[in-house]
Amino acid sequence: MVPDELVLDPQLKYWVLLPISVVMVVVGLLRSNVTLLLKSDPKLEEFKKNREKQFLKRATSFKNGSSVLTRDEFLVRQEYFITQLKSSEFFANKNVSSDAPANPLTDPGSADALMEMAKGNMMNYIPQTLIMAWVNYFFAGFVIMKLPFPITDSFKSMLQQGIVTPDLNVRYVSSISWYFVNLMGLKPVYSLIMNDSSAADELVNSQQQNQQLPNLGAPGAPKVDKIFEKEAADIQILSHESIYDGIIDRVLAADL
């Protein structure tokens, strides 16, 4: 039987716990800097795609927030958006066709996008694989700490990986489990060191947050011209009621 209380060597925190934590923080910061160095400069195709998305975002914002405009301002903007949405002025690819299926091989930015994706996957996979191999090789089977607070047995599989002790108190943490805890919980440390919460989010998540817009140009996504036509139709039938209508009478009535 495994006793409920284990006597842990105080040197474990200096020779196992702290080295794993420090190595993961340093490698994470190095990975962030190397990723920035490997990142390619924005190209014309990327600028056109961002311009396309930003114009669609402007059209959506106008459709959802036109009540803050006067009647004349609304009519001017409505005519402008309908005209531009029905044209190909803001298309990233002027030769877009709604009938032919999208072919990513004909997109000049596809190769660059695939290369950027490969770089990101490489910078995420290689460092974490090396750190995990290092922890498994030098610190396999170590019980390195005991949590100072009680937790339920459901955390046992997460905190005691690499050690086969079904009767051991769940508060004890193995070395490989400490690696995974650091992997998921270093965001506050990165935010403190980098003094940038957004950079820390990007480093931890390794992906930017998706915008609430259609992924234009992606395989299976709606065609750009169809999306623009739909927005133009929605704006064309948009009814307008300004919050400034009758504002003088409402203010005077409120004063009374």
Automatic annotation (TrEMBL):
UniProt xrefs under InterPro entries: EMC3, EMC3/TMCO1
Alphabetical list of SMART domains matching this protein: DUF106
Pfam families: EMC3_TMCO1
The keyword Transmembrane is assigned to this record: yes
Family: Belongs to the EMC3 family.
Any GO CC annotation of this UniProt entry: EMC complex
One GO BP annotation of this record: protein folding in endoplasmic reticulum
Membrane topology recorded in Swiss-Prot or TrEMBL: Multi-pass membrane protein
Role description: The EMC seems to be required for efficient folding of proteins in the endoplasmic reticulum (ER).
Domain of life of the native organism: Eukaryota
Keywords: Membrane, Transmembrane, Transmembrane helix
Protein name as it appears in the record: ER membrane protein complex subunit 3
Cellular localisation: Membrane
Organism this protein belongs to: Candida tenuis (strain ATCC 10573 / BCRC 21748 / CBS 615 / JCM 9827 / NBRC 10315 / NRRL Y-1498 / VKM Y-70) (Yeast)
Broad class of the protein's primary localization: membrane
Cytoplasm among keywords: no
Stretches that traverse the bilayer: 12-30, 125-149
